[in-house]
Prior knowledge:
The complex is a heterodimer of chains A (297) and B (850).
Chain A: E1 2-17, E2 20-27, E3 34-44, E4 49-54, E5 60-66, E6 70-83, H1 86-92, H2 95-98, H3 102-110, H4 117-120, H5 134-141, H6 150-164, E7 166-167, H7 178-184, E8 186-187, H8 189-202, E9 207-214, E10 230-239, E11 243-247, E12 259-265, E13 274-279, E14 284-296
Parallel strand pairs in A: 7-8
Antiparallel strand pairs in A: 1-6, 1-14, 2-5, 2-13, 3-6, 4-5, 9-10, 9-12, 10-11
Chain B: H1 3-9, H2 33-42, H3 44-60, E1 64-65, E2 76-77, E3 85-88, H4 89-113, H5 118-121, H6 127-131, E4 153-160, E5 166-172, H7 179-192, H8 194-199, H9 206-218, E6 229-232, H10 241-251, E7 255-256, E8 261-264, E9 267-271, E10 276-278, E11 281-284, H11 307-312, E12 317-319, H12 336-344, E13 355-357, H13 361-369, E14 374-378, E15 388-389, H14 395-407, E16 412-416, E17 422-427, E18 430-445, E19 448-451, E20 455-459, E21 474-481, H15 493-496, H16 509-541, H17 553-565, H18 583-592, H19 600-613, H20 620-638, H21 646-670, H22 677-700, H23 706-719, H24 723-730, H25 736-745, H26 753-764, H27 778-791, H28 795-799, H29 810-835, E22 841-843
Parallel strand pairs in B: 3-21, 6-7, 6-11, 11-12
Antiparallel strand pairs in B: 1-2, 4-5, 4-18, 8-9, 9-10, 13-16, 14-15, 14-16, 17-18, 18-19, 18-20, 20-21
Amino acid sequence: MDFLITHITEYSYNEPVVFCHNIATIKPRVSAGQTILEYAIDIAPQPTQFSERSDFFGNNITRFSIEKEHEKLTVVSKCKIKRDYTAIKDSFFSKKCTAITLENALETLNLNAPNNFDSKQFILDSILIRNSKPNIKAYALASFKPNRSVFEATNELMQRIYTDFKFVSGFTSVSTPLDVVMEEKKGVCQDFAQVAIACLRSVGLPGRYISGYIETLPPPGKPKLVGADASHAWFAVFIPGFGWVDFDPTNNKIPENQHIVVGWGRDYYDVPPLKGVVYSSGRSSLKVSVDIKALGN
Amino acid sequence: MNAEVESLTDTYFNSDAYDEMFEPDMTIKAPWNNFYQNFKDLGCDELISRQKEIDWNLSENGITYNVYNDPNGLNRPWNLNIIPFIMHKKEWEEVERGLKQRVHLLDLVVKDIYGERQLLKKGILPHEVIFGHRGFLRQCDGISLNTEKYLSVYAADLSRGPDGRMWMVNDRVQTPSGMGYSLENRTVISSVLPQIYKQNAITDQDGFFNNFNQLLVDAAPNKIQNPNIVVLTPGPHNETYFEHAYLASYFGYPLVRGSDLLVRDGKLWMKSLKALKQIDVVYRRVDDIFVDPLELREDSYLGVAGLLDVVRRKNVSIVNPVGVGVIENSGLIPFMPAIAKFFLDEKLILPQIATWWCGQKKELDHVIANISKLVIKRIDRSSRETIVFTEFLSPEALEALILKIKNKPHLYVAQEKITFSTAPNFTKGKLEPRNMVCRAFAIANKDHYDIMSGGLVRVSSTEDVRVSNQRGGTSKDFCIIDETYKKTRKSNYFNSFSSNATELSDLPSLTAENLYWAGRYVGRALITSRHLRTVLKEVANSDTAIDLKADNKITTLLQTITQLTNAYPGFIGSKGEPMVSDVKKELIALVVDKTKSGSLAHTISMFSNSYYSIRNLWSTDMWRVFDSIHKLWNPILKEATDNLSYKRIIKVLDQLITRIIAFMGLIEESILVEQGLLLYFIGLNLERAILNTTSYQSMLTIATEEHVEYEILEAMLHSHESLNIYRYSYRSHINIESVLSLVLLNTKYARSLTFLVGRLKKDISRLPHSKIDAGLQDYEKAIFEAYSKLRLSSTQTLALVSEEQTQERVALETLLTELKALFYDTTKAIADTYFNHSKDQNQLTLQNFS
Lengths: 297, 850
């Protein structure tokens, strides 16, 4: 399936900004089941400095600076992408994946095979997911048992988060601590993904945060609204002996073609779509719109 | 041996610990023999007096360090004990070899961690030791440098173990401190003990600092000639701010803070008085995570947004590079032998403390089983404050600790508890054994490392075995003795550092601003204290109770002090608030109440702040005078205000005024105009112009009965320090016309307003943006107008009482009001043009997902 994604981020400032330095993690990465056909980024005002590089996790990082006075910053990223994830998704349900129990998994991880560290680093604390309280582990242990399949347990964890947590937009922000989300059982996709990752890590499994988009389908019979799609986040677990398997706790779904990957890291902090330092005495307001157009096969 | 000398050591109790100087039977160890004899020959009294001399020297030179979280912790005097720590060259050579090996290894480790990660791939080092350490900055992965070495500067803490060998204790690489203190220690102690230092063959450290300077020069991108180098400090509150300023002035590089720098066009720039100046090398004393709020800690105001990207483009070199903090890592210790074998196929030369990394099952079990005998540390916090000595823990606390370790075992190491050696410290007329830690320093020199000969030794305060300046220990000079050493008379190093002559336009704007404010506060302190002195004398001599409603000299003087200090309601009253009733209380508060804005105490503390912020500019003599101001001033602030008498305050003010004047005299000859003296003068004279105008306005614009006016004029001249000049110049009865011509309109008299404004006009025209051929800048216009107004005035018109009812001299009042407004315009225009480069640094709000 091919998609055309238009992601518009707009900052308006009530006082002029003298200059700003920004980092965007907005250009989708090439990954399993995903090919980038076309990509363009359009920044207004025209940046004085612009460069792209790949970060520690292999994500595409765009760095730019605007060095003249401006009152508005607009970043438009357009990407044509091919998603072919069906076979990969199907493989998650194969014996090769589902047969691996937690006990097997931890054993393999603990072998300390030196090259394991690329995935094992996702067990460690990260900036936003750290010092998890015992209630996280308790929540995880309800699904994770030594003899149970990691895939099944994670699948159940996803379902439980979907059921137990209420989707409330605006209750949390990116700086809301995980404890609050866990206590209030409210939040948005990034919170649910991070709760799941904290649970995985609490039982010794690598969990990774995935930032991307999701195509939303209109209710039957209604036309699709432009801009109704969204930036999205979900998680993946590393099943040693098999590989990374994704789960979307917000939609209680194993991602397929509608889930478009931009990048991944240990948590939101590693892959914010846009961040920056501006020099101004005023405040800013933010408007984001995402539009995903399915182009067919 | 006389009795006095015996008493030096008769209480020297040395338990089983290894002592540096004494054998267990109290005989002296070989390398110390000469030294000990020298000290014995000096005798106890002389030692006490030389120790005092050291203390004085350090205090007068302004050698300080700061203690965090302690209200009295700022600018504590640095302590140096008269007894140095000495080591023989033979032993030192081995230590040196060990240090060279270690820094070389650590350089390879950090290069590997941010590069190929062979150590992890080959399983030599478990990845948690690196990836679990908060100092591992993924943002720094794969950055290539302008320098051959990753580690340019390195410090190691060493202690002597029970086996008599020097052991490695800590590695310091982010912002290794102590070099400046070592240098100053050596300078001070060798001047206090010149004979002893000459007789014993002590090796020099000068060469090390020459090489350090060369290292900074060579670090420049593309090896450009005469690179622009700055020293980046977190600011005056940092623990070792003294050293940042000290090294900046020693090397002759600007001392800057994050807000002095900015990133544009992919390069790093310093905001200087005139324009932006490109910076090639940053010797930074700011910790890794604070250097770039764009990529690292967002809430940091100590760094520069976008700096890491400039590093990636190789347009600037940071010494040491950002990210090295990951090897301040006690988790590395158990793996160092394997790392040494892997990289160099060598054995470690310097022994390390036995260390168990809890990330491995076997080690964890051992640690838990033996926990009460061990010392627990987090791998990423090596400060001595965060080490857990398990023997001091309650059973519950120990249980909690075990739980914490089991929960995140890879974050902890346990170390064997070791009693380190003691060294003799001279305290209260005796030698006492104190635990000690040596800090040694290395710098990269092309493809190898140089080790400073000796370094810094710190010893514990009496009881505490934990040695740290934060806990109030003291320091020692660390000398290496080498009988074969020949002092080579090196060319004076100052000649070799003439990298680039500075101009006024290159002055960092924050420095310029601090100098300007130093000038303004000095001016304010001087005028306020002179006026206060006059007022206090009058009040103290007044026989009758003071009636604030009466129209006389004393009330006029009191009201003037309220206007000068802007401390309303004061003796005037303000909207909604009546004037104060307790004259003495208010006057004393105006002198000693630091919290009262406008008070003399407040002004002096503001002055001290700006003074410390630019401490790299001050000469030793200035420190001496500055110190004398504090020694005079601080005691009075601590006294109970009820006990303060007018007489006592007047006496202090007399001395204070003299010292401020001495300070002002010294500034003029200690700092060059290019270094910013001009800004100081502009600040000073603007403040004087503003305050003098205020005082004239308060004292001269209303005519009163002749005898009262006479008294007021006399008091005004007195406070203005112009009474003698007046008498000399006019030889007449004091009258308003003559007073006005002297203090307002005289063009030759240095204290007259016209003279001050003329001087300001000239100084301001020398600022970098002033042009000689293209009309006046905004900040020049106001002062030009003020000057013209003064020159166009005449005493006859000004002295005229034109308002019968109020007895007001309207022309004078109008002129003074206009002048004051113009002076304020000038201060604003100068600030806008020269100081206000930077807008607030803000983070963009982040996108919240749905």
